[in-house]
Amino acid sequence: MQPEICESLPEHFPEELLETAYSLEVLHIRGVAWNYEDAIKAIHAFVDAQYAILGGDVYRKEHETLVPTFDSWYLNQQTLTWEEYVDESRKAALSYIEMYYRRNGEMYYYAPVAAEKGWKNVT
Asked: Which residue stretches of the chain are H helix?
């Protein structure tokens, strides 16, 4: 995994998620994506570290390569406190990923865009 990506993740981010992350570097995107099961775990890891999930993108796996689907989700903070936003962003991300998985199956990967308090974009 790219050192810059590791540095931008929360401290104590689960090692197993670092190992299963699929780098988006080949698409010239600074970030990573996970399959359904690990994306759910990653969302919880971000939120446990008080990172909000600003949104995310969906990729389809084709011949060992990820291809953009141009499907995505996002959640604006609006008037929520940071703590409320972190909780609502978790709900929105999990809901979207669950729905996408139920409708489309296992060949998709999810790349959440997370930020710590103060809106420093981290993935």
From this structure: 3-8, 15-20, 36-48, 82-104
The full set of domain ranges for the chain reads 3-115
Residue 67 contacts residue 84 (beta carbons within 8 Å): no
pLDDT by position in tens, the chain (length 123)? 555 566 668 888 999 999 999 999 989 998 999 999 999 999 999 999 999 999 999 999 999 899 999 999 999 888 899 999 999 999 999 999 999 999 999 999 999 999 998 764 444
**pTM (two decimals):** 0.91
- The domain defined by 3-115 folds into Ribulose 1,5 Bisphosphate Carboxylase/Oxygenase (3.30.190)
